[in-house]
Design a protein that fits this description.
The protein is of the alpha/beta class and 674 residues long. Bound molecules: 5'-O-[(L-methionyl)-sulphamoyl]adenosine.
């Protein structure tokens, strides 16, 4: 049986089409949103940056000279408030938080080629310059604005009355009256509609395009772009106390990052793609092109809005207390499984629920048992049966035209690149993994380990292992944008010496793997993991780190130059409410070896608390025991079970196992610890 036959079985969704072959190296400038510095990144933000990085890597493999900007959006009331709470100046506070965002992107291997901060001088200059151009062109006027404003989303809420909730986040709006500069957005209604009509791909996906179109068709009001009530913003030159209001500040960062007023020198503007979350599509697809049109500047080519990562069916966000941070996942499983999971599991453009269970299942099924296993079995057999050299199949040379395999290469390449091109990442990966499965099945059917025992089948063995290795080479290249490090490792193990990142997808073809190539040192790529243990490790790390992250957000890490011992004031300690609790009942949490679900009487109520103490305590030994409970923590779910508080324990037992805090004297239930 030939792999061709196997492959045909899985080729139902093939679409015909051509790939374009760029002649020169055109530029491709893409951006992530500029993240607010009033909090630290969670995996929702990480998703945005990962997707941008996948596109960056894909476009490089399609011949583009790619440049990616990310950065920090630092002005506004929220940052000012958070800084005040932390007892810092906004500049000092925001600098520390921006550094943490930047450091995380570096750590995860997804740094921007440029990290723009809206506090950068080059950005101030660009905003002031753009304002001047808009003003000279007659699109700025002064006026009074009274309206409802949501400080959390930094947006006025149209048609809301005093105290009405913000339609986006549900929190009460504030009434604001002040003299502002206005941008004459109303004059751009028709220009924008014409622009959308002439550029049908400007807003993606289609559902967002329709949403924006109907918003603009409904009429546009002029937009307040300065504030006098805020100190923390970019000054409007000669117009103190006006400072620019967030969107006529942050959006311009995309331009400041690539030259600002001198953008022509870098040749990167206009942006080819702004990758954003769906909640900020309007600002990008309506305000931003209007600002640029008003200033006679080129507008971006495309805005792509992705959906939200949901956790417990709600948008993951700090205020809801349902965030998942990337570091624990990355420390336990690595960044690549997270990248793969997010791109494979979530249909790009739609919302998707994040689940640890699905993450680890995908890891085991697609990476460990899928690509990792295929690479390992193919390369191990080449090592064992051909002394570590890619075998020469009979008829090699004519093989480029060999029907089944050449067909494979062109069909799979065309189909997958077309899907990548449309940012249909999930389908692209599905297509690649169909090939992984097809090659795997081919090996299972051909049984090279049996052929190896039959000297008369030596040629057949060479053909089978060559075919598997060449198929592996092609799927490895196709998966590279999503799994850059692990595919590079497989690539090296296949004996390839040019970096995979420099390979052009449209130049990949069957037969390029040279017989006689010495394969590299074999090493496992994705070791299988035990699901429940892995999830527990991630969750307990998550719990520890989210506490640390909250503390860090409230008290930014000192910069090395100004390092001082991390002491807290008594008022910080007073924020933690600890009480004596009495365990009423305890049981194990299904599927979690370390977790116990407890009902704890804390004096005025009985709380359900999930504690990671099952390795050290049996449920029956805990009932009737007095424990110390932190009672004012945000509720969290652990393995789907809500936990309303935390039991205090020292990591002091064997192997750091928990030892519960307690009292020698008898203490009343509910007594507060001070
Ligand atoms: N500062 C503005 C953007 C200005 S762009 C000139 C902002 N910042 S943000 O930090 O609140 O969010 C930035 C982006 O993070 C969102 O647009 C979205 O891309 C991403 N996400 C934040 N939470 C998210 C989820 N729960 N799920 C997916 N992405 C989410 O908005």
């Amino acid at each position: 049986m030939r792999w061709q036959a196997v492959f045909r079985l899985s080729r139902t969704r093939t679409q015909k089409g051509r790939m374009s072959t760029p002649r020169a190296k055109p530029k491709y400038y893409l951006t992530t949103p500029l993240y607010y510095t009033n909090g630290l990144p969670h995996i929702g933000h990480t998703y945005s940056t990962i997707v941008a990085d996948v596109i960056r890597r894909y476009k490089r493999m399609r011949g583009f000279d790619v440049f990616m900007t990310t950065g920090a959006d630092e002005h506004g009331v929220n940052v000012e408030r958070s800084a005040k709470k932390a007892g810092k100046s906004p500049q000092e506070y925001s600098t520390a938080i921006a550094a943490q965002w930047r450091q995380l992107w570096d750590e995860l291997g997804i740094p921007g080629d440029e990290f723009i901060r809206t506090t950068d001088e080059r950005h101030h200059r660009t905003v002031q310059w753009l304002f001047k151009r808009c003003r000279e062109n007659g699109f700025i006027e002064k006026g009074h604005y009274t309206g409802q404003y949501c400080v959390h989303d930094n947006a006025y809420v149209v048609d809301a009355g005093p105290g009405d909730p913000c339609p986006d986040c549900g929190r009460p709006t504030e009434t604001v009256t002040e003299e502002n500069y206005f941008f004459k957005l109303s004059e751009f209604q028709q220009k924008l509609l014409d622009f959308y009509a002439a550029n049908p791909d400007f807003i993606r996906p289609e559902s967002r395009r329709n949403e924006v179109l109907s918003f603009v068709q409904g009429g546009l009001r002029n937009l307040s772009i300065t504030r006098t009530t805020i100190r923390w913003g970019i000054p409007v030159p000669g117009e103190a106390p006006h400072v620019f209001y967030v969107w006529f500040d942050a959006l311009i960062g995309y331009l400041s990052a690539v030259g600002g007023p001198e953008f022509d020198e870098r040749g990167l503007w206009p942006a080819d793609l702004h990758m954003v979350g769906k909640e900020i599509i309007r600002f990008h697809a309506v305000y931003w092109p209007a600002f640029l049109m008003a200033a006679d500047l080129p507008v971006p080519k495309q805005i792509w809005a992705h959906g939200w990562l949901l956790f417990d069916s709600e948008k993951m966000s700090k205020s809801r207390g349902n965030v998942v941070r990337p570091r624990p996942i990355v420390s336990v499983l690595g960044i690549e499984p997270l990248r793969y999971y997010l791109l494979r599991e979530i249909v790009f453009g739609q919302d998707g629920s994040f689940s640890y269970d699905a993450l680890v299942s995908r890891y085991n099924s697609d990476l460990a048992n899928g690509l990792g296993n295929l690479a390992s079995r193919t390369l191990t057999m080449i090592d064992r049966y051909f002394g570590g050299e890619i075998p020469k199949p009979p008829g090699y040379g004519a093989l480029g035209n060999e029907p089944g395999s050449a067909d494979f290469a062109s069909e799979a390449l065309t189909r997958v690149t077309q899907l990548y091109e449309k940012f249909s990442f999930s389908l692209a990966l599905e297509g690649i993994w169909e090939q992984v499965a097809a090659i795997d099945k081919y090996l299972t059917v051909e049984k090279p380990w049996t052929l190896a025992d039959q000297p008369e089948n030596r040629e057949r063995l060479a053909k089978v292992l060559y075919t598997a290795a060449e198929g592996l080479r092609i799927v490895t290249a196709l998966a590279h944008p999503v799994l850059p490090q692990s595919t590079e490792k497989i690539w090296r193990q296949l004996g390839q010496t040019t970096p995979l990142a420099s390979v052009q997808m449209d130049q990949l073809s069957w037969g390029q793997l040279k017989p006689g190539t010495k394969i590299g040192k074999l090493e496992g790529i994705f070791p299988r993991v035990e699901k429940s243990e892995t999830i527990e490790r991630i969750e307990s790390m998550e719990q520890e780190q989210s506490k640390a992250a909250e503390a860090a957000a409230a008290t930014p890490a000192p910069t090395p130059a100004a390092a001082a011992p991390a002491k807290i004031g008594i008022e910080d300690f007073a924020k933690i409410e600890m009480r004596v609790g009495l365990v009423k009942s305890a049981e194990r949490v299904a599927g979690a070896d370390k977790l116990l679900q407890l009902q704890v009487d804390i004096g005025n109520e009985v709380r359900q608390i999930v504690a990671g103490i099952a390795s050290a305590y049996k449920p029956e030994d805990l009932v009737g025991r007095k424990v110390v409970v932190v009672v004012n923590l945000q509720p969290r779910k652990l393995r789907g079970v809500e936990s309303n508080g935390m039991i205090v324990a020292a990591s002091a037992g064997p192997d750091g196992s928990p030892v519960l805090a307690g009292f020698l004297e008898d203490v009343p239930v509910g007594a507060r610890l001070k």
